Amino acid sequence: MSVEQKTAREPCCSKLKMFLAAMCFVFFAKAFQGSYMKSSITQIERRFDIPSSLIGFIDGSFEIGNLIVIAFVSYFGAQLHRPRLIGAGCLLMAIGSFITAAPHLFQGSYKYETTIAHLSASNGTESILPCLTNKSHSQANEIHTMEVQAECEKATSSSMWLYVFLGNMLRGVGETPVMPLGLSYLDDFSKQENTAFYLALIQTVGIMGPMFGFMLGSFCAKLYVDIGAVDLDSITINHKDSRWVGAWWLGFLITGGVMLLAGIPFWFLPKSLLKQGETETEKKLNVLEGEQDRFIPDNNKHSTPPNKPAPVSMAALAKDFLPALKKLFSNQIYLLLLGTAFVQVNGFIGMITFKPKFMEQTYGQSPSRAIFLIGIMNLPAVAFGIITGGFIMKKFKLNVLGAAKICIGASIMAFISLIIQYFLQCDNSQVAGLTVSYQGAPEVSYQTNTLLSQCNIGCSCSLKHWDPICASNGVTYVSPCLAGCQTSTGVGKEMVFHNCTCIGESSFPYANMSAVLGQCPRKNDCDYMFKFYMGVSVIGAFLSACGATPSYIILLRSIKPELKSFALGMHTLVVRTLGGIPPTIYFGALIDRTCLKWGTKQCGGKGACRIYETGAFRNSFLGLIYGLYASSYLLWGIMYNRLSHREKKLALKAQLKAPEQDGSGVSNGNMNAPSAIVKCNENPDQETTI
């Protein structure tokens, strides 16, 4: 009775469920880290004054770290202590986060580009002439010799982004054992019918990490980068300005601490567990058999007992590596899964990396608001979609073919939602000399813009700097000087410019010839369109996530058990390297081509982009996603055809075996002898007395 009670209570606190809880936490922590990195892309780009293509390369360093060790960890790690390897990976990820935040400690204060920093008057009265004052400063600030520029770049630590690159790459190395070793460990010791639900549970808890990561990113984006070290009243920009840099470093310290905690439980879990459902009595019988095998000699057995496997040397494992690799890649379904995942992940990584920037440039949202909305709206929809896919698999007990149908259906419906997003657009922000002329006519091409006009040609303004002001006519001017402003009042964020000649010459209606700091907000109908966009985006995120769990089930059920960890590792390798590294680079390079106005570094070089041409940005960004997803559906169709072909073969084999089993049970006397002979032949080393 006591044994039965012990067996009944064990599942509530079994080591498998402890491992499941630890996996949920580590998936949360690594998603927390990764999503915060994604949410900080814009802040890092502005802080180090680098283009989108380079920030894409930095973001891809995580996958580079995976590439270095994933094949070896997934293959050799399956034979080692998997929980402890996961714990060591968590420690590396925490260190990587701390290294990523290190540049903030070594850099000086952030100095944003501006033409009016020197214009503040002590008494706040009308005393400055922006149009004339810039004449002396513009020429002096734009002349840089090679020696002066080299010294300037050294003083400003312009290469400190390398620390971010290395820290992110170390995070990629540490994350390597979590997916292949953790999921294979769980699948090895859980019931087959519970695997889909456990995977869905892990992914659902894991998706909570991006929610908190994006919300933390939104919070840090509103804090000034040098908070506590500078007087915030002297800052003339706010968090909506494209020159604003938030406290990006703070979040990496927080996510690193969380990852340290997540890795602790894995150091105390065993190398292997009992298969789920195995009773305590069976465990004791296995122990007794092991003791008998150890102390009772058996001349007929020369192998190691089943529960005491012979130690495997690293040389033997290395010898079997290439044959295992050849066997794995001879599986056509596995290759099609890799190809489909590679194409879809390319589209997904490119989209999620630059989606905040897309929302900022297309709909006029601030980076902090864009990140916050993704965290509280899109990501919960993804979590609900993942658990829905796992629930459908468990509820209807679908096979591999049924899982493929869910994946294809969910992907096509998500693609339709993406197409709808193309038509939910806003007009370009009206910027004089970039998107509209100074007289009010739209610019013919975004590649040919003219910042000079008759109203400001006598001011000798700097054409490199971005220091926008919003006029009463609703038009943004690149700087007070280029707006032809003659005077100014106020200090800091309250500065107002007056007698701006370019405002008076435009065809737009205006109340007066004054302007305030900052870029003009979008029209009211753009906010209305943005609400539709978010609604369609949330529906698309849910539909796309419904296929996540079924796709993992297809992967697990399409390979042999002994290759499971290796297959998951190679899947992660291909997806992370070919699907994770290139898209951030070529998406960023393509987006850079739509830039209207580049910023200027402190040393005079080209910095980060300040404003993009909305139509070209949308066409490049969404068009590339459409092409990638459309290619993946072709691969899904081929894979579905192969899966259905394989299922028919398996069904035919089952029908052929059924008559043989029925025939073997009809006769007892005549069939006993042949069956005994067959058994004897199957085990020739065992003696018989037939």
What structural keywords apply?
mainly alpha; elongated; single chain; 62% helix; disordered C terminus
Describe what you observe in this structure.
With 690 residues, the chain is mainly alpha-helical. Helix content is 62%, strand content 4%. The protein has helices at 2-9, 15-39, 41-47, 52-76, 82-101, 103-106, 130-142, 146-155, 161-175, 178-189, 192-222, 248-262, 280-295, 314-319, 321-329, 332-363, 367-396, 400-422, 501-505, 524-545, 548-557, 564-577, 581-592, 614-664, 669-682; strands at residues 469-471, 476-477, 487-489, 496-498, 515-517, 595-600, 606-612. It has a 5-stranded antiparallel β-sheet, with no helix packed on it. It has a two-stranded antiparallel ribbon with strand order 6-7. A hairpin with a 6-residue loop joins β3 and β4 (496-498). α4 (52-76) packs parallel to α9 and α11 (192-222) packs antiparallel against α12. It is elongated. Mean pLDDT is 80; it is low at 1-10, 118-126, 136-144, 290-309 and 666-690.
Q: Assess the beta-strand content as a share of residues.
A: under 5%
Rough shape?
elongated
- Structural class by SSE content: mainly alpha
**Stretches with pLDDT under 50, minimum 5 residues:** 1-10, 118-126, 136-144, 290-309, 666-690
Largest sheet composition:
5 strands, antiparallel
Number of discrete helical segments: 25
Mean pLDDT comes to 80
* Sheet with the most strands: spatial strand order: 2-1-5-4-3
What's the Cα radius of gyration? Answer: 32 Å
Cα separation of the termini: 44 Å
What is the strand tally? 7
Helix content: 55-70%
